[in-house]
Write the structure tokens for this entry.
Amino acid sequence: MRAAFHDTGATAGALPPFPGLGGGQRRILRFFGRLVPRSAPRPGNRTGTPIGGCYAPGMRIPGPGEIRALHEKYAPTAEAFALVHTHCEIVWSIAEQLISASRPDVDAELVRAGCLLHDIGVYRLYGDDGRLDHGNYIRHGLLGQEILEEEGFPEALCRFCSHHTGVGVTTDDVLRQGLPLPPADYLAETAEERLVMYADKFHSKSRPSAFLSPDAYAAQVRRFGEDKVTAFQALRAEFGDPDLTRPVPDGGVSARA
């Protein structure tokens, strides 16, 4: 099985963000299939938050009920739905705790949507026999991005699927490890993306599912290089350690030290 690095709840891949135009030119973004100048009027903007290298003001963010319906639509079995959707709910419960403790400045509504959507691509890895294609698991982030694009969601939401793996997949990771992904940097850029990535590290969808302490994850990711440990410690410094003893949706055994 190929693996970029240990991703306890997720995996990888995506297209690079739309770049801005430099040299004093206006930044451009693709928003629901349209190219919109950053300076164009946008009535009804909700936040105007810069997201994933793009400016996405006025973006409609789906709520938990709509996201659950998407999981039900794409889940091939009730068992797959329970495994993936419960994991996503647990990741949100961890992120919500971290927001309350240390990061009230982040967009909690956007983080909630990112947590609840980030692993939806896992469903496309189930075969007709109900088995998960572990050999291509690294692709589930890209597959999730494809699902959200097909559903008409903007890039800022699609990126939560394709940019949450491990502590970030680089072009060098893809090429050096021969990963089945288009060579690109799949890195979390905004605070919201980094928080979803970080919260995902503390719960595994393995059988039985389990929680991982920060030290346990750091030990696991070390086999992929000290740079990965450094990246994880930077996330830890930014958001703090979650309390994994607090009540969360049923997610398996307690944290491993």
User: Anything to note?
Assistant: The chain has nine helices and seven strands. Residues 1-55 have pLDDT under 50 and may be disordered.
